[in-house]
From TrEMBL:
This is Putative manganese-dependent inorganic pyrophosphatase. Keywords: CBS domain. It comes from the Bacteria. The keyword Cytoplasm does not apply. Residues 7-63, 89-144 form the CBS domain. The keyword Transcription does not apply. Gene3D superfamilies: CBS-domain (3.10.580.10). Pfam families: BON, CBS.
């Protein structure tokens, strides 16, 4: 399975030099958890997450709110409008490409505790993949995967081919010719959540 099949596109980005308020509004409006940061030319120069922003603007402990929490919240509001995202963003950004295998991204996401990975084409951002996208793609319920795969085979006119799924591993069975077998394999490999495909002829 390729990254292009699970990425969200277009990616919601924020301009370098934007205020914290600008970034917070983008996160809230588009219901995303991270924003790739681009420079004036559109090139990726960093990424900032909701956690980065919250850590910057919220007191670490409840007692830090002081005796007048409303006054403290007013101070926080001032901070979000006057300070920029530049010092907060991560500049060492893990990126991927649309033809990359999702399993490869999963390995990085799991070992480096990364929540979002920008997707590039010709060094320009075209989408983004979240950790939840990766999990959903790689660990779909077998029944859901089988239903989608059965429909995909039918859409391609491969009525003589049938699939079984166990823990994301697909077994194709059919009595078609070699060309149909290759077509059925391609359909199965393209389905989101498929970990491995084998084929047998009746």
């Amino acid at each position: 399975m390729r990254v292009r099949e699970i990425m969200s596109a277009p990616a919601i980005t924020v301009q370098r030099g934007a205020s914290l308020q600008d970034a917070l509004e983008l996160l809230a409006t588009h219901h995303v958890t991270a924003l790739p940061v681009i420079d004036e030319t559109g090139a990726l120069c960093g990424i900032i997450s909701e956690l980065d922003l919250l850590r910057a603007i919220m007191p670490n402990h409840a007692e830090d709110m002081g005796e007048n929490p409303h006054e403290k919240l007013a101070e926080i509001s001032d901070i979000t409008q006057t300070e920029t995202i530049d010092p907060l963003m991560t500049t060492d950004v893990l990126t991927t490409y649309e033809d990359e295998d999702v399993a490869h991204i999963a390995a990085h996401v799991s070992t480096r505790n990364i929540r979002s990975v920008p997707v590039l084409r010709n060094e320009r951002i075209i989408g983004i993949v979240s950790r939840s996208d990766v999990i959903e793609a790689l660990f779909r319920p077998d029944e859901e995967l089988l239903n989608d795969l059965t429909a995909d085979l039918a859409d391609e006119g491969l009525y003589d081919w049938h699939a079984t799924v166990q823990r994301g591993i697909v077994t194709l069975t059919g009595n078609g010719n070699a060309e149909e077998a290759q077509q059925a394999l391609a359909v199965a490999r393209a389905a989101a959540g498929v970990r491995k495909v084998s084929i047998t002829t009746a």
